[in-house]
Amino acid sequence: MTTIKYATEIVNELNRTIDLIDENEAERLVDTILESKKVFVAGAGRSGFMAKSFVMRLMHMGFDAFVVGETVTPSLEKDDILIIASGSGETKSLVSMAEKAKNLDASIAVVTISPESTIGKLSDLAIKIPAKPKAGADTDYKTIQPMGSLFEQTLLLFFDAVILRVMNKKGLESGVMYGRHANLE
């Protein structure tokens, strides 16, 4: 298969996977973000990179949005939401964060392959992205991609779609966001 044919198949996989995400869960996430005082996002590895891009866009819209673990991140409180991006839902550092957030009575959402995971069970909302690294007989899709690539790519697209929906609900235009874009680069 050529490079461009691989790219075409990746896009096809993304379309199939996105079609399987529950629309009601996605809308609940949007509403919870809009109702929250501060938004905290956490993830590890490539999932963490996707989460950081999500926080950046929330900040561009004027939300108090933070990446867990950064030196300028404030404390999580009761009226806040912690959004965790974790394919497995079992990453130990993220499980610890979810447990701490639960003890602080904050809202917890996880975007994951495994809503039945430890983090999924701790969460108020678990959004399933059906993108297992190795497709088997029990799945509705197949992937040609290595490791967690399908999950991570779908995660980025899902988070960008959440941003568009939040913008829509707040009546924001993209141009407004440029005023909060970094200017010391």
**CATH domain fold name:** Rossmann fold
CATH homologous superfamily assignment: Glucose-6-phosphate isomerase like protein, domain 1
Count of all domains: 1
Distance between the termini: 39 Å
Largest sheet: 5 strands, parallel
CATH architecture: 3-Layer(aba) Sandwich
Classification by helices and strands: alpha/beta
Computed over alpha carbons, the radius of gyration is: 17 Å
Spatially, the strands of the biggest sheet line up as: 2-1-3-4-5
Helix content: 40-55%
Roughly what is the average pLDDT, rounded to an integer?
91
Write the element-wise H/E pattern from the N-terminal end onward. Answer: HHEHEEHEHEHH
User: What's the CATH class label?
Assistant: Alpha Beta
Number of strands: 5
Low-confidence stretches: none
Would you kindly provide a written description of the structure presented here, covering whatever features stand out?
With 185 residues, this protein is α/β, with parallel strands linked by helices. The chain has a single domain, classed as 3-Layer(aba) Sandwich (Rossmann fold). Helices cover 48% and strands 12% of the residues. The protein is built from seven helices and five strands. The chain has helices at 3-18, 23-35, 45-60, 92-103, 118-122, 149-170, 174-177; strands spanning 39-43, 65-67, 81-85, 107-112, 125-128. A five-stranded parallel sheet has the order 2-1-3-4-5, sandwiched between helices. Helix 4 links the parallel strand 3 (81-85) and strand 4. The N and C termini lie far apart (39 Å). The mean pLDDT is 91.
